[in-house]
Amino acid sequence: ENFLNYLSVEKGLAVNTCSSYELDIKSFFSFLKTKSISNINSVTRHHIIGYLLKLKKEGKSTATSARHMAAIKSFFHFLLAEKVITEDPTVNLETPKLAKVIPRVLSQKETELLLKQPNVLSDVGRRDKAMLELLYGTGMRVSELINLNLQDINLDLGYLRCFGKGSKERIVPIGSFAEQAINEYLVLSRAKLVKKNKESALFVNWRGKRLTRQGFWKILKEYACRAGIETILTPHTLRHSVATHMLENGADLRTVQELLGHADITTTQIYTHLTKGRLKNVYDNCHPRAK
After folding, report:
1. Which of 165, 170, 209, 213 is catalytic?
2. Architecture of domain 108-281
3. Does residue 234 have a pLDDT over 80?
């Protein structure tokens, strides 16, 4: 519990990350138990390497192994700071290197098709239309979307407040399409979905409770299927698409970074790779010496 507080308060990690780290540490402890290690001071670098090898044999991805390693490092840093241990066995142990994966994105045509799928004559359809328009209009993370409360949105000013990784607050502009969809949802449908519940969440499920990440993911996959979109979707696909489409239409990296809430601009720079194909097409079509 003290370790989780340390992750949340001192390191400012997101709730989902803290939960993942907790599970990773429990998994590591289970491994230590099979090695008859009951005293945390008895853990050596060899035990940690052995655990990473176990994850690899189980077919875990490099990203998963890297997260486990990050959790273990944070845990031992915490124990050392609290003077529970005298030596940190993770010193000089490298985290598995992650290859830069260029995210899949939807084309602007596919995005338009996806946004047209909800039936705006139904209450659930109005909610879904508002969520999709807001997600694409702002580039928010799905976790930020489902955690929005009524007081976080101001349609008169055209802005909303959301809390990103590490509970970092940022103010994000709302586009006219998203604004209209949200207004219709609030005026015509939300009260019917909430029923008699006292719910502060902006977006609710059919039971009148806050929509979950899994619930949204199911909704997104259904609409993508209806739209005939063959691109493999993830909960972040629309977010990736927003960044790419903005860069394609002339936005600068710093603006996109601020909109998405990236702490480091190198995270945003990965989207520049996605626009190079368009750059080549424009060059081929427009430069007199291209062909």
Report:
1. 165
2. Orthogonal Bundle (1.10)
3. no
